[in-house]
């Protein structure tokens, strides 16, 4: 199997963790890096590689490096150029798996591009109606209704049909991750408001929008419970009561995963025409070249990628 890797921000730890990962890689699958050799040269010793411009000239058993023609001294722009080239490759080949290394959203924005995250970038470039952002670890699988938006906007974007679509995508992904039938996937839904709204006394969103959506999904055969207070849902998930937790905003879903699984967690985008995973950490500019970066989350991202 061939799979793409985008280098992410070359000023961060991506070149280092990528080469750490590849030094123990068995090359049973063929990695195609969209990036530049010059960013790897301090780390790539003992790794077999080939620089090519042609996706039809990929060699098995080595790291294939495809460099975008346009180049910049700005690392934010470079990050975006790598993503643009990856989109081009995905559209003209049959490659169905991509692993994206961390970028700096602010650096890409400062370089003049409209960019709020990988999830939104790929959704827009492939004209997909719906995707779901998920955080995957061995003890927890978490899906998030919204992505990278301000908290104050979440209530306005609540919609019954969209809720159902995103929960169905979450169930589909979890079914494949855990190798179980989709109607056997146990879903625990978090409340949006404190105490899941207390029957409308601390917010009406659960009563008016979320609960009716859940009831409709139950009517279709989905194994789904909630909404309950978030702490209750996550504790039950950790006790193997649920296979996937459905949360409403980025930090509600991410914080428990990060606390429990630290760097053994993975970002998964589901609903695209291909599978996309990423390490669940940022570019970590502060520890670049300090021999502190670990490829643990990258290895987990690869494990999840090839399992789907």
Describe the structure.
With 308 residues, this protein is α/β, with parallel strands linked by helices. The protein folds into 2 domains: 1-128 and 272-308, Isopropylmalate Dehydrogenase, CATH 3.40.718; 130-270, Isopropylmalate Dehydrogenase. The protein is 35% helix and 18% strand. The chain has helices spanning 14-23, 75-92, 105-110, 118-125, 160-178, 205-219, 230-238, 250-261, 296-307, and strands at 2-6, 30-34, 49-52, 63-66, 97-100, 132-136, 141-144, 186-190, 223-228, 244-247, 266-270, 275-279. α5 (160-178) packs across α6 (205-219). The longest helix is centred in the middle third of the chain and has 19 residues, at 160-178. The mean pLDDT is 95.
Helical/strand content category: alpha/beta
Largest sheet: 12 strands, mixed
Identify the CATH class of the largest domain.
Answer: Alpha Beta
Q: Say what the CATH topology of the largest domain is.
A: Isopropylmalate Dehydrogenase
**SSE topology string:** EHEEEHEHHEEHEHEHEHEEH
Shape: elongated
CATH level-four homologous superfamily name of the largest domain? Isopropylmalate Dehydrogenase
Put simply, the count of helices is 9
User: Segments where pLDDT lies below 50 for 5+ residues?
Assistant: none
CATH architecture of the largest domain: 3-Layer(aba) Sandwich
Strand order, largest beta sheet:
3-4-2-1-5-12-11-6-7-10-8-9
For the record, the count of structural domains works out to 2
Global Rg: 20 Å
Q: Could you tell me the strand content as a percent range?
A: 15-25%
């Amino acid at each position: 199997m061939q799979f793409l890797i985008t280098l992410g921000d070359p000023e961060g730890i991506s070149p280092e963790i990528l080469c750490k990962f590849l030094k123990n890689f068995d090359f049973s699958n063929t990695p195609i890096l969209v990036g530049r050799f010059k960013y790897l040269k301090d780390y790539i010793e003992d790794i077999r590689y080939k620089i090519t411009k042609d996706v039809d000239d990929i060699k098995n058993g080595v790291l294939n490096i495809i460099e975008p023609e346009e180049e910049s001294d700005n690392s934010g722009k470079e990050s975006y150029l790598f993503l643009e080239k990856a989109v081009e490759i995905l559209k003209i080949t049959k490659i169905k798996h991509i692993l994206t290394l961390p970028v700096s959203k602010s650096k890409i924005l400062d370089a003049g591009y409209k960019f709020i995250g990988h999830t939104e970038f790929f959704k827009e470039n492939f004209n997909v109606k719906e995707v779901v952002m998920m955080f995957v670890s061995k003890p927890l699988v978490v899906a998030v209704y919204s992505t990278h938006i301000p908290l104050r906007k979440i209530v306005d974007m609540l919609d019954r049909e969209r809720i159902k679509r995103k929960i169905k995508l979450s169930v589909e992904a979890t079914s494949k991750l855990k190798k179980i039938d989709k109607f056997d996937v146990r879903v625990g839904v978090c409340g949006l408001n404190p105490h899941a709204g207390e029957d409308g006394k601390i917010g009406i969103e659960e009563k008016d929008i979320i609960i009716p959506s859940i009831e409709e999904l139950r009517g279709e055969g989905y194994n789904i419970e909630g909404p309950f207070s978030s702490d209750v849902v996550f504790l039950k998930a950790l006790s193997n009561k649920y296979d996937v937790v459905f949360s409403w905003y980025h930090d509600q879903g991410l914080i428990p995963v990060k606390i429990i699984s630290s760097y053994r967690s993975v970002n998964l985008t589901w609903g695209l025409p291909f599978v996309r995973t990423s390490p669940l950490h940022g570019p970590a500019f502060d520890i670049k070249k300090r021999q502190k970066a670990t490829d643990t989350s990258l290895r987990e991202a690869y494990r999840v990628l090839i399992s789907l």
